[in-house]
Prior knowledge:
Blueprint: E1 8-17, E2 20-30, E3 35-39, H1 46-53, E4 60-68, E5 71-72, H2 78-87, E6 89-92, H3 96-99, H4 106-117, H5 122-135, H6 141-145, H7 154-166, E7 172-176, H8 184-201, E8 204-209, H9 212-216, E9 221-226, E10 229-235, H10 236-241, H11 246-252, E11 273-284, H12 290-293, E12 296-308, E13 313-317, H13 324-331, E14 338-343, H14 356-361, E15 362-365, H15 369-372, H16 379-390, H17 396-409, H18 430-442, E16 448-452, H19 460-477, E17 480-484, H20 488-494, E18 497-502, E19 505-511, H21 512-517, H22 522-530
Parallel strand pairs: 3-8, 3-9, 6-7, 7-8, 13-17, 13-18, 15-16, 16-17
Antiparallel strand pairs: 1-2, 1-4, 4-5, 9-10, 11-12, 11-14, 18-19
Helix pairs in contact: 4-5, 4-7, 5-7, 8-22, 16-18, 17-18, 18-19
Amino acid sequence: MSTPQALLELQDLRIAFGGQAVVHGVNLSIQAGERVALVGESGSGKSVTALSVLRLLESAQLSGQVLWQGRDLLQQTPAEMQRIRGDEIAMIFQEPMTALNPLMTVGAQISEVLQLKKLLSRRDADARAVQLLAETGIDDPERRFGAYPHQLSGGQRQRAMMAMALASEPKLLLADEPTTALDASLRLQMLQLLADLQQKTGMAVLLITHDLALVRHFAHRVAVMEKGHLVEQGNLMEVFSNPRHPYTQKLLDSRPSRNGLAEPDKPSTPPLLLAKKLQVLYPMTTPGFRGWFKKHYFTALHDADFSITPGTTLGVMGESGSGKSSLAQAVLGLIPFGGELTFGGQFWQGSPGRDKALRQKVQVVFQDPFGSLSPRMTIGEIVSEGLRLHRPSMSEPEIEAQMVSTLYEVGLTTADFPDLLNRYPHAFSGGQRQRIALARALVVEPDLLVLDEPTSALDVTVQKQILKLLQDLQKKRRMAYLLITHDMDVLRAMAHWVLVLKKGHIVEMGLADTVLNRPEHDYTRSLLAAFPDN
């Protein structure tokens, strides 16, 4: 019996930029109605492989064959490729905020696809766009049709992107990290929605991701890429239960571990940070004349009570809009707040001059290491900035010695990176940039680090390295951490205590083992159930 022709087949696909090869002879096929996951870390070549299918890499040199229902797409004319894009093969991009046009409503963008690809009238296209928004699970689709991208949440924007991709009823959907920017609960919702739509329409899906936990819940087959080479592929259960290639084994073994976590202090230890009835309000614009006479506020955080002792980690979990970021900003003294917040007996004064001493003791590491580091400053300027502000009496040799020592502590040495202090952030990988961000915070020897999703932008193997580094630093320096995250694996590896926020209210708080393994509140149970492999 003959094997049915593949819907898409890559034969010895090679991709190069400026003569430098980045993808080396990939062979991969996708059957109609099949869900395939292309897995690998940043720089493995998975995204450029997907983009080459639609020939969206203008400066790339492509060779081999990309067979679409038997036709080689590398040999098609630009006009023919324009017809195939969206009509037969559609794509969902990683970050909807940059992929969507900020000057057009989401409804108009979906309608435009229908008018161009399906030749529908404006009225029919608009009606179909509303229907697509409803099918992708957006509430009140008629109203959302007229919303601009910035007026939607991350999950809603991703649903709108999905509606746009499905508008022309493609036979193949390329989904490039479609859930990376979403909360854990939303990730599974979006993936389940994608699986339901795939079954309903019969299309095939190629999922590009580095999140192996999500792959378990979605794919029929898995293909693993490392440094431009396809190193392993096969049935989902076969690859996950019996990985043959060392790189696949390494990826599957990258789950964070709690083994290196510092022992918490005794319950009688005085708290380093103490919050009582902490409240965060944001002013709201009220339409009409009533807004002239009375101010209205939105309460982002309601009467929160919590504490952190030296050498321990308080993990804060909750969905987008739960108040996690408002809590962190209040602790950092970056926004006005009500209630009581003391740090070693001190409290924020709301003045740069009076808060200077306290600001040295409370530092922060942000989610995106590239966005948080100035591209115009050298590593030496970035790391020394805090020392120059908080310790102006230090000499230049003393500053340099402190910088080199701190960078060494986070795993960056002048032996491995010659002229380290004079390099710029773009010369480093994501994991190395996060180490630089850590060094910037550590160089002034703080007592508390606020960690705002410190590993969510990193690959799984790099994430494990950074978390191990944080564990080691906590044991060595006895620092306290306030960890903001939606990743349950990170909480299990790092937190001594866990605080659960829902719509600004603390609904549960306790020892990490208790909250994560024997939760009492329904909301906590729903969060844990939404995360794979808990």
